[in-house]
Amino acid sequence: xxxxxxxxxxxxxxxxxxxxxxxxxxxxxxxxxxxxxxxxxxxxxxxxxxxxxxxxxxxxxxxxxxxxxxxxxxxxxxxxxxxxxxxxxxxxxxxxxxxxxxxxxxxxxxxxxxxxxxxxxxxxxxxxxxxxxxxxxxxxxxxxxxxxxxxxxxxxxxxxxxxxxxxxxxxxxxxxxxxxxxxxxxxxxxxxxxxxxxxxxxxxxxxxxxxxxxxxxxxxxxxxxxxxxxxxxxxxxxxxxxxxxxxxxxxxxxxxxxxxxxxxxxxxxxxxxxxxxxxxxxxxxxxxxxxxxxxxxxxx
Length: 300
Fold this sequence. Notes:
Helices cover 38% and strands 18% of the residues. It is built from nine helices and seven strands. Helix 2 (36-53) packs parallel to helix 5 (136-145) and helix 3 (86-96) packs across helix 4 (115-123). The longest helix is centred in the C-terminal third of the chain and has 22 residues, at 233-254. The mean pLDDT is 87.
């Protein structure tokens, strides 16, 4: 608007974005750790709502996606019906390719709608693949929808209080999930405990720019060896832009009007606040880490 008048719609959008950003930052604010139980409750209810709204089982991947800028990159051959999720599958392929899964036992923490774990089970051929998620409705959906995949199972559980035996997995993968964990250090401790000696932790997620140094410190403090760190912010943002029309269609079809703004933001309609062209504290980076548990790292 001209003449110095404020635009009510713009003000409303700005207030909404500020409120959501505040909620997204809660897990990384120490003074809010006492309300971590509330954060988990809200997270569980949100993902249960997704399962309720997705009545046609159209949503099996929820990550931002990945595109390669390598001119020699060969497209992944997909099953019929998976093309709408090409970018999300490419994210899993890019992360999971960092280890040899053949004959190994794998675990995905934060398995969501199960598409990633199912893809890994089919494509990389682990001996077994387990997905664990906080949402009981998501787990029930996964066990129905992906029941035909050999060696794959899903269980309900808390990433910060995993109940699997010590040294029971060769590879643990976590994709775009830990940013919502109010006590992510507890999750990292469980990763160390659950990995077999020489096991791999394949990890990809986002953090606001002013949180990255602390994030790296948290990973170093696990004692795991950081084999590589890769910035995939541009790859994820480009994937979002290529896939946004399909995401918007899902929101318009399945989400009630009052909730569409929330789900559009969750789905990255604003570019995921990913820092490609501008680097302010309200922007995020997307990182991929490959870590390994050395044989002399004690878990007891």
